[in-house]
Write a structure and sequence with these properties.
The complex is a heterodimer of chains A (287) and B (444). Helices cover 36% and strands 11% of the residues of chain A. Chain A is built from 11 helices and 8 strands. Chain B has 2 domains: 286 residues, 3-Layer(aba) Sandwich (Rossmann fold); 71 residues, no CATH class. Classes of the chains: A alpha+beta (287), B alpha/beta (444). Chains A and B meet through helix 5 of A and strand 16 and helix 14 of B.
Chain lengths: 287, 444
């Protein structure tokens, strides 16, 4: 009885020792050197694995940052300047400068602006609707409202408003990772420079049709009239394919284009309410 | 035992309401819109501009590139503009707008109803004639026919298969054409045989069209090499590869074409169009369309000029009845819902079906219960439930490996699914994405 136990213990111990020796040599032979800084950098990254940097996950970005010796083309939009500063600190480099951005929806096709002409009751997936037909309204460029962007957003920053059917973006939660930009089959999202107090001025339309059909499909469509381009004193507005575009780098938030737009296609967001015109003129005279 | 294809397939209710109604010629409308892309491939180049006078049958769009087709004016009148027009899906494409004035045909078209049986021109000339006349596959795929007649070097065609199956429920346009223009179709088949240099042609017709089978069989006795074959009723027998399997028991391998197994398939409607083009010099400017539905007041088979607004067509059939929930372009299985009734009729439209609201609603989507009914229904041995999941999750490389591009979008899977899952919707998405990815790879 006792000899059985003894034999078992001895043979198993021998086996364990032998395996340990083999494993030691194998581990020595196939040792892979990994820069310990990769782990340090990864620990600083947000660990969201959202793909906003263009890599599959945070680890891949960390590897790329350590290997590259510079920050050329490597930036974590989620962590922003703070995280990049920390990373630059442990690597002894100068932190890259990049302006914070936020996603905006280039469509303002609310139900009161854009009448619904058909009803779609197939699979609720924007990609499918987009490949099938023009959508529930007559605008073949506008938001379909089936929420591919909502499904893609890993930060809970984007939700479809059940009343309007359009996505609503939270400026606080949006990390500008760009998942919505990639998810939207109609390319309606744009990452724009984040301004003071989250102020935004942009053309909330993507319709490239001529004025007539565009207006017919949606009351707030950009009709490509070019009035905003003429009124802009900073050369920030360009016009292509019957569609105006405001360059965020040049825009000074003077809001002249917003007033000029005949279809109210240009949105101003987070601005204080305007003074009535007479009052503003009186103030100007006083000044 | 009647022939059919062995794997999969479904039996949707036939609802061939218009099978007994003769073809009626619809009046020429006041204006037409003729899209320049009514076929698979590159859109045609417009040859006319605003203010030009055109005659019926005149070339107004020239096919460019390898896969393309000519477009002819279906009416006489004045071009009011060349601009974009919304198709039945509401998507815009270039089209020629014509205001109709009278109905003056170009001189070369023989408008007599006399049947010309003698084929005077050579195979090469027949192929050229098909291209010149803008002939495309009339079954709905609208693949330019001249390409299918040009057998690539190194390959051999030994049998021509004529598709008179019309397996889609509701549609009867081919059925009526076979009954009323039987002899013309058979001459058309002889022309196609001459172009392909084959001795044998087989016409496959489903057994639910007994009158068409007996009519064509009796006519075929005076033609050499043409035989008529009744087939067991099963959807999708009208699909090229299924019809080949049913008739000559050859299987077209994955990613290959019918010509790789020595067969070429054309539709009866195409055979009729080829007859008119070759013997009567008439380009493809009109087609038979089944306008039907359970509550339509005047359902029927109408010979309609290409470019006629759908609203005019629906008017002729007695207008859109109250309680219509959906209008389908094509058959109920493979057709697409129409979102714009101002859209023009195009070469590929074989039917317009008005579906009552109660039937138009899709079932609520429930989780997959792994019953594998879709797998048994798939005629090409695919696994629809898997392909759907892969497309839904964006796993397109895996979907490509599972042969998603072999799917012919017959819709048997969605039809048979007890959980109401939108299988085909997602498979179509995956298929188009995989094809696009492959193209981008080639371009790189």
């Amino acid at each position: 009885m006792s000899s059985t136990i003894l034999i078992t213990i001895v043979s198993l111990s021998l086996l364990a020792f032998l395996s340990a020796v083999i494993l030691y040599f194998v581990a020595q032979k196939f040792k892979v050197y990994e820069d310990p800084r990769i782990d340090d950098v990864q620990a600083l990254l947000p660990a969201a694995n959202c793909g906003g940097c263009g890599f599959a996950g945070c680890r891949n970005l960390a590897e790329a940052i350590v290997v590259s010796e510079s920050f050329e083309g490597l930036y974590c939009p989620v962590g922003g300047a703070a995280v990049m500063g920390d990373i630059a600190g442990i690597l002894g480099r100068i932190a890259p400068v990049s302006e914070p951005k936020v996603a905006v929806l280039k469509c303002n096709g609310l139900p009161e602006h854009r009448p619904r002409t058909t009803v779609y009751n197939g699979a609720a997936d924007c990609r499918i609707v987009h490949s099938l037909y023009v959508g529930e309204t007559d605008c073949s460029y506008g938001c379909l409202g089936f929420g591919d962007c909502e499904k893609a957003c890993a930060f809970d920053a984007l939700h479809i408003d059940l009343v309007t059917g359009l996505p609503v973006i939270s400026d606080e939660k949006c990390t500008s990772c760009g998942a919505c930009v990639r998810a939207c089959p109609r390319n309606l999202f744009e990452l724009r420079k984040k301004a003071k107090k989250d102020r935004k001025i942009f053309v909330a339309c993507s319709n490239c049709d001529k004025g007539g059909p565009a207006r017919k499909a949606c009351r707030v469509a950009c009709i490509g009239c070019g009035k905003c381009q003429k009124v802009c004193a900073f050369d920030a507005i360009s016009l292509e394919n019957n569609l105006a575009y405001i360059d965020a780098a040049k825009c000074t938030f003077c809001r002249k284009c917003v007033e000029e737009c005949p279809t109210n296609a240009i949105l101003e967001i987070n601005f204080p309410p305007r003074k009535p015109k007479a009052e503003a003129e009186a103030e100007a005279v006083k000044a | 035992m009647l022939k059919t294809f062995p794997t999969g397939g479904v039996h949707p209710p036939e609802n061939k309401l218009t099978a007994g109604i003769p073809i009626e010629y619809l009046q020429v409308p006041g204006n037409v819109v003729i899209p320049l892309s009514q076929h698979i491939g590159t859109p045609a180049n417009p040859l006319v501009s605003k203010g030009d006078k055109v005659k019926t049958g005149q070339l107004i769009g020239e096919g460019k590139g390898f896969v393309s087709a000519n477009i002819h004016s279906s009416v006489s009148g004045k071009v009011s503009k060349v601009d974009t027009a919304a198709d039945s899906s509401g998507l815009k494409q270039l089209a020629v707008y014509i205001d109709v004035e009278g109905d003056e045909w170009i001189d070369t078209i023989d408008r007599s109803t006399e049947i010309v049986r003698e084929i005077k021109i050579s195979p090469e000339e027949i192929i050229k004639k098909c291209f010149d006349s803008g002939i495309v596959g009339m079954g709905g795929a609208t693949f330019p026919s001249h390409i299918k007649l040009n057998v690539p070097t190194g390959k051999k065609c030994d049998v021509l298969i004529i598709n008179g199956v019309e397996c889609e429920p509701y549609l009867t346009s081919d059925h009526r054409l076979m009954l009323e223009k039987g002899e013309e179709i058979l001459v058309g088949v002889s022309i196609l045989m001459k172009a392909l240099k084959v001795e044998k042609a087989m016409i496959g017709i489903e057994n639910n069209k007994a009158d068409a089978i007996s009519h064509l069989t009796s006519l075929a006795s005076s033609f050499t090499g043409i035989s008529v074959h009744p087939l067991k009723v099963k959807y999708p027998q009208g699909a090229e590869k299924q019809l080949i399997k049913a008739l000559i028991n050859r299987e077209v391998p994955s990613g290959k074409l019918p010509i790789d197994v020595g067969a070429v398939v054309h539709n009866t409607g195409t055979a009729f169009a080829v007859y008119e083009a070759v013997q009567k010099n008439k380009p493809l400017i009109d087609r038979v369309v089944t306008v039907t539905g359970k509550s339509v007041s005047r359902p029927g088979n109408y010979m309609i000029r290409i470019g006629t607004p759908l609203s005019k067509v629906l008017e002729a059939a007695g207008g859109i009845p109250d309680g219509t929930g959906k209008i389908i372009n094509g058959g109920p299985m493979m057709g697409k819902a129409v979102s714009n009734t101002d859209a023009p009729l195009v070469k590929g439209m074989s039917g317009i079906i008005l579906v009552p609201a109660a039937e138009a609603e899709r079932e609520p989507i429930n989780p997959c219960i792994r019953c594998a009914k879709c797998v048994s229904a798939c005629p090409i041995h695919l696994e629809p439930f898997l392909l759907m999941t892969l497309s839904e999750r964006g796993m397109f490389e895996r979907a490509a490996a599972e042969k998603i591009t072999d799917c012919m979008e017959c819709g048997c899977c969605s039809f048979t699914c007890p959980a109401g899952r939108p299988l085909l919707d997602y498979i179509r998405l995956g298929k188009s994405t995989v094809i696009r990815m492959a193209r981008q790879k080639v371009l790189k």
